[in-house]
Amino acid sequence: MSIWEKYSEEQRNEYIKFLQVYGALSNLFRQKQGDLIPYLDSKFQETVFAKIFKSQNVDIGNTPHDVLSVFGNDRIGIGLKTWMGSKPSFQKVMQLKRYQNDINQYKDNLEDLAHKISEIKNEKMQSDYVRLGLSENKNIYHYITRDEGKFTINECAYPLIDTDNLKDFSSTTTAFSWTDGQKDYKYTFGDSQIWQKFDTGKHNSLLLHKFDVSIIEDPFNFLLEAYAKLIEVPKEIDTDIVEVYLPLYSYESQEVEEKSGLNAWNAAPKSPANPIPRPLNEVYITIPIIFHKKHPDFFSNKLWDIIEYREQLKGTKEAKPEIRFHLHLPNGKIIPAHLTQSNLKGLQSGSNTERDENGKRYGQSALGQWLLVDVLGLKERQLVTREWLIKKGTDSVRLWRKKGDYQNINIDFAPVGAFEAFMKDIPVELEEDEIIV
Length: 437
Description:
single chain; seven-stranded mixed beta sheet
């Protein structure tokens, strides 16, 4: 069964209707009139797909998967694409600018070059599997090809590259191509892009549905008339979601401190009498006081009351109050978390009462295991630096919750510079560059 068939017929029909409406407005987006090939913007495609199929938009800066659909215990990562023409063609699937120098070292040996590019692509894919809780063999590309007066919906498998079966190497001054027997790939040297050949005639590729799109000749007049009807009945625009960003580094020093934050594992042992190093995944996310001042109501509507009361308890043995909530990871897991330390400047996981599926009490390592070890790939006791984070394509996290719900907060990675932009009230662009290994 295709993933398309897992959605209800009502959802599929509504999705098609939205695509037809957008395609009908094609003359809004081009200067040359009379072109009969309907237009489709990729961001609209992502947004409407997530909306209609009740999926989660998980693209945080050209990560491998755009949306996540959950069917019972199955978590399906989906890459969304659209282009003109239904004939087999190569399409861009991954940007590797950060790895250009590493890749160019292998240009004189085509087999090694294919292995290097394939390994980097697979590492980025596997990192997203961990981030989102995906399996290797269930993810897909959902893509729409556009021909004269028509949209065609297609689906194909989205596997790792089989590095044990690389062959048919060919290189020119501008590009390098190879195959693994399942998919054909190309790498262009000038822009450091991986391209994949899409062909509905190949194994694990399906043509799902083809439908007509009627293009409105004068969409401008159509929109003006529609807008005039809309403003006759003013509507209050609101959103149910509140989102913020936090840095994975110290806002004051602009670096990851050596013994705190993501390097909290490098701090002195908790007990001088037992000098055992702290666990590698023991971390916390630092919260600058400037953030609390600008967004005092994100974690609690009583933030300053709690901070003031904690100050009054200094020097006493009385337990200081903390702000506690459940942190929802993008892989589907939920871990208890809290704000602690002076001025509630540290966000970390842990609970004295809740336990994981193995019956083990949640500790400070739960967040660090996902953030630092599983996704970012820290394997040794190597200090995390801002430079290292930027190499991974991130230095911030995005947090969001529903209005009024302080007990459930979602978290995911965000692109480099996201926190700085957020604090300056600049919209955070999630697709400027690739992110995460």
